[in-house]
Amino acid sequence: MRASLIQIGVNQDETVEARRARVAALVREQSAADLVVLPELWTVGAFAVDSFRAEAEPVRGPGARTAEAMSEAAREARVWLHAGSVVERATGESGETVLYNTALVFSPDGDLAATYRKIHRFGFDRGEAALMSAGTAPVTVPLPDTTLGLATCYDLRFPELFRALTRDGAELLVVPAGWPARRAAHWSLLARARAVENQSYVLACGTAGTHAGVPQAGRSVIVDPWGETLAEAEDAEERVVTADLDPAYVAKVRADFPVLRDRVLP
């Protein structure tokens, strides 16, 4: 199984429409992959909070511009596509507009196979944490040869979410992010930690460029269930990171070193 992470460069001088079209073309170029992953909030930039409301869109139906473009790209490339996340505009119980940081997964047929609303919002009562509502449940996605577990950026700091995903059958943990350069060391450390403790592949896809004045870490990485780095971007430039994964290796590692069997707490 070949996985490709596209470390998108977010330049605030590029319009959302232009970037959407450019990223769709990059996805189409990855037709040799089985799974393609994009970063968090690549349409607007993860720290461009002043643009969230203006650029919010539904994930289905009229106005779902990013979902439509990514569906078409996945279908033309014949790949499973984790399209990163978008600022989702939804309607609350009282009819009010609610925003979510929502990840989208498309099948090779272009069908929207799953969505995941980010549970842990970053900002400490500001930014994303103040503007967006929180998701409430872990999400896994069955693929023909493995099961994806979905998380987004700041979620990486909360191991209990990843344990829940593992409990629900995840063998490949996908983490799109807009992670800042000043905490790049944490990003690399936590990606490997989540792989080791859950004996799963981790595909952590970050952005390049600068979001609203915040330089991004880049350093997208693919880690195997033993914690070995299979491929990694060594900088924050736009590039593709690719590795071949063996879905059967997850079961082998878990059988040879059955640490998950000894869990005491849920």
UniProtKB/TrEMBL annotation:
Keyword vocabulary terms for this entry: Hydrolase
Domain of life: Bacteria
GO molecular function, one term: hydrolase activity
SUPFAM superfamilies referenced in this protein's UniProt entry, alphabetically: Carbon-nitrogen hydrolase
CN hydrolase domain span: 1-247
Family of this protein: Belongs to the carbon-nitrogen hydrolase superfamily. NIT1/NIT2 family.
Protein name per UniProt: Carbon-nitrogen family hydrolase
Organism: Streptomyces macrosporus
Taxon lineage: Bacteria, Bacillati, Actinomycetota, Actinomycetes, Kitasatosporales
